[in-house]
Design brief:
CATH class of the largest domain: Alpha Beta
Largest sheet: 7 strands, parallel
Distance between the termini: 45 Å
Number of strands: 13
Helix content: 25-40%
Strand order of the largest sheet: 3-2-1-4-5-6-11
Strand content: 15-25%
CATH topology of the largest domain: Rossmann fold
Structural class: alpha/beta
Bound molecules: nicotinamide-adenine-dinucleotide
Shape: globular
Number of helices: 10
Length: about 300
């Protein structure tokens, strides 16, 4: 059994990962400043370091005796990054370098970094492969991409094993309902429960590779434990699907209001997961409709079956 540190472990994805690592019998530490994370997301049995990773000195103790770090902490919001380019750069880039540096100093063996499919921007073809040129359309996308590059530098120069996993739109239990980043499903659920029309930005043909959080958790654990990676690899951690917002609102049912497309949003995304399969044995398990049905059910909403 190992000792793992999850930065951002009070957040949506981090708390799901903590739950699974504890279930597997590992020792789990959480580093979080609760800027978007929630105390009620903390899993019992974890050790909390309530610190801000923009402060290297303050975070150093959390890394002592740790075998691996999942760096999930970030301010994951495109609009926030456009409104606050300096603050978001400090958190998403300097924060990442601080975490890598703390790993180097504490001789942590491996870091799995939460990267983002937003790095792809607009691509001429789908699905998106990691060998395609990147096209970050927002400060957030650029910040997350820069994090990948720093991970590669730390693998190359400082002997810290690193892997970056590009997530596509993640959904599931403990999805954010307040704060800077609220996923589209949360808006739809809120609007549906309030009897309001669902608001779609653009013409609804925007597509996403919606990925259940349990599959992202699986990818993280495989990336942490696989002997085949650790040299700064970048891998997609999506479900491999291509679902339009029009398809999603149909499953919710009810009226829809179309609003102008939002600046910085990516029009289409879909992961090519063949390399992830090959290198770490990743296989997404939750089909989109099954995952959405479960999420809607937990809010008392019955999915419209076709
Ligand atoms: N949710 C998605 O669809 C998605 C898609 C692509 C990438 N990602 C990436 O996955 C990671 C996790 O995302 P999430 O959806 O769980 O977001 P989240 O907002 O729920 O979690 C982020 C966590 O980081 C913590 N944090 C932020 N700044 C911090 C700081 N300075 N010091 C310490 N802790 C800090 C927050 O309090 C929060 O608990 C992020 O790195 C994000 O960029 C998420």
């Amino acid at each position: 059994m190992s000792t793992y540190l999850i930065t951002g472990g009070a957040g949506f994805i981090g708390s799901n990962l903590a739950e699974e690592l504890l279930r597997q019998g590992h020792t789990v530490r959480i580093l979080d400043n609760f800027s978007t994370g929630k105390r009620e997301h903390l899993q019992s049995g974890t050790q909390l370091f309530e610190v801000d990773f923009t402060n290297l000195e303050a975070i150093k103790p959390a890394f002592q005796g740790v075998d691996g770090v999942f760096h999930m902490g970030a301010l994951p919001s495109v609009p926030f990054s456009i409104e606050h380019p300096i603050e978001s750069t400090k958190i998403n880039i300097l924060g990442t370098v601080n975490v890598l540096e703390a790993c180097r100093l504490a001789k942590v063996k491996r870091v799995v970094y939460s990267a983002s499919s937003s790095a792809y921007g607009i691509q001429p073809e789908l699905p998106q492969r990691v060998d395609m040129p990147t096209d970050p359309l927002s400060p957030y996308a650029l910040q997350k991409l820069t994090g990948e590059k720093f991970c590669q530098q730390y693998a190359k120069h400082f002997g810290v094993e690193t892997i970056s996993l590009r997530y596509f739109n993640v959904y599931g239990p403990r999805m954010n309902d307040t704060g800077a980043y609220v996923p589209v499903f949360t808006f739809f659920i809120r609007q549906k429960l309030a009897g309001q029309p669902l608001t779609v930005f653009g013409d609804g043909e925007t597509s996403r590779d919606f990925t259940h959080v349990s599959d992202v958790v699986q990818a993280n654990i495989l990336a942490m434990q696989s002997p085949n990676v650790g040299h700064g690899e970048v891998l997609n951690a999506g479900a491999g699907g291509n679902i339009t917002l029009n398809q999603v609102v149909k499953l919710f049912g009810g009226p829809v209001q179309y609003l102008p497309f939002r600046e910085g949003d990516v029009p289409r995304s879909q992961a090519d997961i063949s390399l992830t399969r090959k290198l770490i044995g990743y296989e997404p398990k939750i089909a989109f409709k099954d995952g959405l049905r479960e999420v809607l059910k937990s809010h008392g909403i019955v999915m419209i079956e076709e």
